[in-house]
Amino acid sequence: MSDTWKNDLSLLQGALRSFVQRRGSPANDADDVVQEAVLRALQTARKGEPIGNFRAYLYRIAGNLSIDGIRHRGVRERISGHTLDCPEALAIASAEPSAEQMMMERQRKAAFDAALAKLPDRQRQALVLSRIEGWPYARIADHLGCSAATVFNDVKMAMRFVMAQTSDLDL
Asked: What predicted TM-score, i.e. pTM, was given to this entire model?
């Protein structure tokens, strides 16, 4: 590519950006459209395909990409508008969990409670205080009258046991 083309191309980019914006592309998309148009035109030139009027060819590509972008935005807006504003969809959708989800959650809780009940007392307390109450190991150690390393091991062993007991559930 000659230096003349490079100079012409750098001068054309600003004009192309204005052209694309006048065609309806938002300012934040215009740079992307211009970049893609230049890239496609350069790829065609590198392949050796004859381009009679490079400037006109570049404008044609940019115009087509701009139209494509507008079409895609329109489709996205129509789709997102229907899903958000459609009264029928809002009537169907619910923030409440489904009956199946509620049943599965009850099963998970029952399995977790059963596994907790099988743990030795200190492990159960260490697990509950650490993972449910959010206490640090040092505070649990003071509360239970043992070392932080013991609390760490109790929590680790309790977690392994609970995971093994509830592994058949779809958690």
From this structure: 0.44
